[in-house]
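Explain this record to help learners:
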Amino acid sequence: MTKNLLFLFFKTTKQKLHSQEPETAQKKKLAEIGTQLRQYREQQSICLDKVAVVTMIRRNLLQAIEDGQLDQLPEPVYTQGLIKRYAEAMGLDGTQFAEFFPIEPAPRSRTKLSWQDGPQLRPMHLYLFYTFLIICSVNVLSQLMGGSVTAKNGGGAKELALGQQEQARLAAEASRSSQNQKPDSYEAVEAVRTGQNLNKSGNKPVMVNVTFKAESWMQVEVDGKTEFEGTLPSGTVRTWGAQKQLVVVAGNAGGVMVAVNNGQAEPLGDPGVAKEVVFKANELKPSAPPNNEG
């Protein structure tokens, strides 16, 4: 219903923009689009920071769209793309919102100038100018070549020693990093390759098993503390546990399958839509024991 009302509202105002100046039309249209997006976002109780994370658009640009501040945004064609991504993150028709934002620049008055209006240069003037330009170019090239040769002869040994020290330092850091710990994204890829489940949560009142059917950004908050935030590939299997409350936020809810307390896995939401779900211990059934019969 809300999408239909937005479509009718933009359709009735589109014809009025053709008789106005393009820049004025852009400002008015941006203000109308920003108002509609803000109202829809507030109805869904979504903060602007989460929209910035899902769309990967800076918060100040999203704020400028909502406030209708055209001078704070890039070129109209790029602003049109930002509007599309913002609307799609809200579950709206991003293409429709983008098409209602005019990208034609304001006409500028141009004065035709003739080459006869400027100063006339005689052949002798051109000859002197070219001669002066060649002399300056030769002097500059000579100074640059002389300076580079001096620096190469005087500092070659020092640069070689510094380069060897830097390579040794990087090799030592890489060795320590590979021996001590592995990044979270590396663990996720290893889990996909070996078919194992990264379950470090133990037996807790709230147990959430997550299987990624498609690549998605995700944020997991365990008992008020952010446990994970990043993008995981398709095929990744993860498990998180909490004592009181576990919050899951996914950028592509349709590609994330969630099973609570060893229950049946279900999609977190619709494909391509960002969604936040809160699992509380006092509202869930106790975790069922895993079925190891085989």
